[in-house]
Write a structure and sequence with these properties.
The complex is a heterodimer.
Chain A (H helix, E strand, L loop, with lengths): L1 E3 H7 L10 H5 L10 H10 L2 E3 L14 H5 L7 H13 L5 H13 L28 E4 L2 H5 L5 H12 L4 E2 L10 H5 L3 H18 L3 E4 L2 H9 L7 E4 H10 L12 E4 L13 H9 L4 E3 L29 H11 L4 E4 L2 H13 L7 E4 H8 L1
Parallel strand pairs in A: 3-4, 3-5, 5-6, 7-8, 7-9, 9-10
Antiparallel strand pairs in A: 1-2
Helix pairs in contact in A: 1-3, 8-16, 12-13, 14-15
Chain B lengths: L6 E6 L11 H9 L4 E7 L5 H13 L4 E6 L2 H14 L7 E5 L1 H5 L5 H19 L8 E4 L4 E4 L3 H12 L4 E4 L22 H14 L3 E15 L2 E11 L6 H5 L4 E7 L1 E4 L3 E3 L16 E3 H10 L11 E8 L15 H15 L4 E6 L9 H10 L3 E4 L4 E5 L2 E8 L4 E7 L1 E6 L1 E3 L3 H8 L26 E3 L9 H21 L1 E4 L4 E3 L9 H5 L5 E3 L6 E3 L9 H5 L5 E3 L4 H12 L1
Parallel strand pairs in B: 1-2, 1-3, 3-4, 6-7, 6-11, 7-8, 11-22, 13-20, 14-15, 14-20, 15-16
Antiparallel strand pairs in B: 5-23, 8-9, 9-10, 12-21, 17-18, 18-19, 24-27, 25-26
Helix pairs in contact in B: 1-5, 2-3, 5-16, 6-7, 6-13, 9-10, 10-11
Classes of the chains: A alpha/beta, B alpha/beta.
Chain lengths: ~375, ~575
């Protein structure tokens, strides 16, 4: 499909690009695929047409947004990839797995395709208040934490922590739909706009002053793309750190482990939240926090974002998560702590496949908090 | 009895610039019919010598006492026509211009309508001319002397020129020594001579010059007055040497000196970009990553070892903190390509076996000898690779630079033992304070703003205050010295003349109408009006007044009139336009 480059180049203001190469240079997948961000932009600027179908590597991008964070001319390179994906979505030329995830979100409000009614199956024990009845804080659980058995421990742990701290909170239950962060990044603009409208209305109708999420992906889109004025949007690490500092959450058990923390792209790199997760870990008695070399702004993407949970991409070599867990193991840490459901799944997968499960355990911060409470 | 106005009207063709769109002969014929017009002509180039001669001749022959020139913008030739009138013995403020070029012939495409508009503009100018009053050109005496703020290379060179011209100069330096940032360098490009060879003679001349007084650990505490008559309060130590001994001053309190001078030169220099602001480079985390300033010190000591090991691979990264929207410095720092080529050559010479690589986006080695200097670096073995480094990570004792070599079209992982960040220049952190003290505006990049980017690089919006060196924007030593000498030259003009001319068309207060409300005092950007404490009326300092008219419009009693823009004059213009 021959796309005329001029309109999109103008709309995305690609003219700012001076071809310095920082985007490709810092791109975590650049060394494994033919995807070359800088070259793509150059093509859009100097060639009259781009054959979008000839670039299957467009699906390799994890939307870590390192290129956006570092571009010296504020060009926002990854938005070009998202825009080109939009063209592919419109013409229906998308990987099957992407289509299935999008269909699941459309039909059942989540990418797994499991029925909407089962969204609250993760709740066990005391039922959680329905936010629709009114609450101070809305807890947005998210799709993967709701449906994936490995991740369901996280919302359960969060509920226990919120209750212990005496917070007035509620969940949307089966009315909760996918936040759409990955939907936009996979190029499905129409579906994303629909989710923003429906979720936005629902969230505002609750009347809560705060919105807290499990996943940094939901956090990212609610904070930066939904336009929820008047509502304070938080990731759970910000809230838990705050509760610990205020003395509303106390630890009575020890977790005597060497722990290293992996900064998720959507929390760290993109939203500059580095200190709160570390503050939580340091507050847990017995935890010895060690840092990987590539931490904070240089954290190595696990390759789970940007729709990559549902796309293998063109490069069938090992995922970056494999390299990442090696880096974690090298610090001598026993636990690799994460704060994102996608990181949790991809990094744990990498540990298992490489047979590192004796040395290294991947855990969400909330699992550690839960042990210490 | 006042003489009746006798106005001469001159319509310029301006070659074809005006006459192509405006029928200038028709306008001249029309002008002749206006009240009080004694003579009306059209001519090819009014600003030319014969054109001006026409005006002078007519003033004599036709006893003209007012002149209207319909031509280009007054910003072009108002001084020219005022001069012509003055030469014929007519007060220059009795000349009025009508802009029938920029505001008529150049912006319209209908010849008939443009001609009609030109006629209206001329009628309006004639109506005002009839009401113009002669104005006195005033001069105030100048206090000889210059304060130079900043004792770096710009400040010292400027100070010496003023001192050599025979005037007292007060050099105010914030730190405890002269020499500024150049003193932190090892060798300079493109000559590669040592910095001490440059600075020592200069500092010695400054120290020993009878007309120069040096203040160290000194700051400007206050500035009052206006061009020709400033009073600058300096808090610091007056010294006879060029360096303050710590022990000497630790028990002393700085004194306040009040300096009365005619001009001020600002030569406060720059700050270096702090690479902690780019955490992805690992500066402060890895001992292998240093700044270019730190490299200068190592080159001076001849020691390039990292953790005791000789580097096999040395990499330079250009544009750190410059050309970068992420840190808010959009500009290019101008000197880094040259100083990197310098350091890279020197490193290659010190370590002949090492691979020395410069990672660039563009190579900007302009200036005399610049391109040849870049050739020299490469001839010595320095490799230039195109690609802005995105991140630096550790690998054992070495570091790895993550980038794309855009010319190879390949992402690379480049291993290095020593990495030099070519950090850029930034405005000094105390620029804001000095800016408000001197009322100096700054450009969007934070450096002090020059009066015009092309035509007036050392003047500022404040008469009598001049800029020299990097405080106005990043530049190298040759350009700094050129600008310092230019600033000294401009600063000397009022001193040599002994007097400064002040704006003739200033605001005047009618003391009978003035209610003493003080609105004009609040509104004036130049501090010209002040309330007389005894009479409780406003008095305008005609020297400070720039004739902007803000007070005249703001005055609720209509007690202030701006000369050359009185209500009668303006209303006459409006009437002429509307009829």
């Amino acid at each position: 499909m021959a796309l005329k480059t001029e309109p999109m180049a103008e709309q995305l203001e690609l003219f700012g690009c001076i071809q310095c190469g920082k985007c490709t240079g810092g791109c975590p997948v650049a060394r494994k695929t033919v995807l070359n961000m800088r070259s793509l932009i150059y093509h859009m600027l100097v060639e009259p047409e781009l054959d979008v179908y000839a670039h299957p590597e467009l699906w390799d991008c994890t939307c870590c947004f390192t290129c956006v964070e570092r571009c010296p001319k504020d060009v926002r390179p990854a938005e070009l990839i998202i825009s080109l994906r939009g063209q592919l979505v419109e013409s229906g030329r998308i990987p099957e797995t992407v289509g299935a995830a999008l269909m699941g979100i459309f039909r059942q409000g989540n990418p797994t395709g499991i029925a909407r009614e089962d969204r609250t199956a993760w709740v066990n024990g005391t039922p959680v208040k329905a936010a629709q009845e009114g609450c101070e804080m809305l807890y947005f659980v998210g799709c993967i934490p709701s449906y994936d058995p490995r991740v369901q421990v996280v919302p359960r742990a969060l509920v226990r922590a919120f209750t212990a701290a005496g917070l007035d909170f509620g969940i949307l239950g089966t009315e909760e739909s996918c936040c759409g962060n990955e939907v936009r990044r996979m190029g499905e603009v129409g579906l994303f706009e629909m989710l923003v409208e429906e979720n936005g209305e629902l969230i505002r109708s609750v009347g809560a002053s705060r919105l807290v999420t499990t996943s940094p992906h939901c956090f990212n889109t609610f904070r930066n793309e939904y336009g929820l004025d008047g509502i304070e949007v938080l990731h759970y690490t910000q809230l838990i750190a705050e509760l610990i500092e205020q003395g509303r959450l106390g630890f009575s058990n020890e977790v005597k482990k060497r722990v290293t923390y992996h900064d998720p792209c959507f929390l760290g790199k993109q939203n500059h939240i580095f200190d709160e997760p570390r503050a939580i870990l340091k507050a847990i008695p017995g935890v010895k926090l060690v840092e990987m070399d590539r931490n904070r702004e240089r954290s190595l993407c696990c390759e789970g974002g940007g729709g990559r949970m549902w796309v293998e991409g063109t490069n069938l070599e090992e995922r970056l998560a494999f390299q990442r867990v090696q880096e974690a193991a090298e610090t001598g840490a026993e636990i690799l702590a994460v704060a994102c459901p996608f990181c949790l799944l991809t990094l744990e997968d990498a540990v298992k496949v490489q047979g590192l499960d004796e040395r290294l355990q991947v855990m969400d911060i909330m699992e550690l908090v839960d042990l210490a409470l | 009895m006042e003489p009746q106005p006798r106005i001469g009207v001159y319509i310029c063709h301006c070659g074809v610039n005006i006459s192509a769109m405006v029928d200038v002969e028709q306008v001249a014929e029309f002008a002749a019919t206006l009240p009080s017009v004694a003579v009306a002509r059209d001519y090819l180039y009014m600003c030319s010598d014969p054109g001006q001669a026409l005006i002078r001749q007519d003033i004599e022959e036709h006893r003209l006492n007012r002149v209207v020139v319909a031509s280009c913008s007054p910003r072009m030739h108002e001084p020219t026509f005022r001069g012509a009138a003055q030469q014929a013995g007519l007060n220059p403020y009795l000349v009025e211009m009508a802009n029938i070029r920029e505001q008529c012939s150049w912006v319209h495409s209908d010849r008939e309508k443009a001609t009609e508009k030109a006629k209206l503009l001329v009628a309006s100018a004639v109506a005002k001319a009839a009401l113009l009053e002669p104005l006195e050109e005033r001069e105030v005496e100048v206090t000889p002397g210059v304060v130079v703020i900043g004792g770096g290379i710009a400040g010292m060179v400027a100070a010496l020129d003023v001192a050599d011209a025979g005037f007292p100069v007060y050099l105010v330096e914030k730190s405890d020594h002269l020499g500024g940032r150049v003193a932190d360098l090892n060798r300079v490009f493109p000559t590669l001579e040592p910095v001490t060879d440059l600075l020592e003679p200069l500092i010695e001349r400054v120290r020993s010059h009878p007309n120069v007084t040096v203040f160290l650990n000194a700051q400007v505490a206050g500035v009052e007055g206006y061009v020709g008559n400033f009073e600058v309060a300096v808090s610091g130590f007056r010294v006879s040497g060029s360096r303050l001994n710590e022990l000497e001053t630790s028990n002393l309190k700085p004194e306040t000196h009040r300096l009365n001078i005619g001009s001020i030169i600002v030569a406060t220099g720059y700050d270096v970009f702090d690479p902690h602001r780019k955490p992805e480079y690992g500066y402060g985390q890895y001992p292998n990553v240093i700044t270019s300033l730190e490299m200068e010190r190592r080159l001076a000591e001849g020691n390039l070892a990292v953790d005791g090991r000789t580097p096999q691979s040395v990499a330079f990264i250009q544009c750190v903190g410059s050309r970068d929207a992420q840190v808010g410095n959009l500009y290019c720092s101008r000197v880094c390509c040259m100083y990197t080529a310098k350091q890279a050559q020197l490193v290659q010479e010190l370590l002949p076996e090492a691979r020395v690589t410069v990672f660039f986006i563009d190579v900007r080695t302009f200036g005399k000898g610049g391109e040849e200097f870049y050739d020299e670096a490469r001839a010595k073995g320095v490799r230039y690779r195109r690609g802005n480094i995105s991140e630096i990570i550790r690998r054992g004792d070495r570091v790895v630079l993550l980038a794309e070599d855009t010319l190879l079209r390949q992402p690379i992982e480049f291993e290095a033992d020593l990495v030099v960040l070519a950090v850029g220049m930034e405005p000094r952190s105390d620029t804001a304070a000095l800016s408000s003290l001197l009322k100096l505006p700054r450009s969007s990049d934070g450096f002090f703003l020059e009066a015009h980017p092309k035509l007036r690089p050392v003047d500022t919006a404040v008469d009598g205050v001049f800029l020299a060196g990097c405080c106005q924007g990043p530049k190298d030593i040759p350009d700094t010295i050129a600008q310092a000498k230019a600033a000294a030259s401009s600063a000397l003009i009022p001193l040599i003349r002994g007097a400064v001319q002040v704006e003739a068309a200033t605001a005047v207060v009618d003391v009978e109408e003035c209610a003493g409300c003080g609105t004009c005092v609040e509104v004036c950007p130049y501090g010209a009006p002040a309330l007389d404490p005894y009479l409780n009326v406003s008095v305008v300092n005609a020297v400070l007044c720039k004739g902007c008219g803000a007070c005249a419009s703001a005055c609720p009693s209509k007690a202030i009139h701006l000369q050359r823009f009185t209500p009668e004059q303006i209303l006459a213009q409006v009437d002429a336009l509307v009829e």
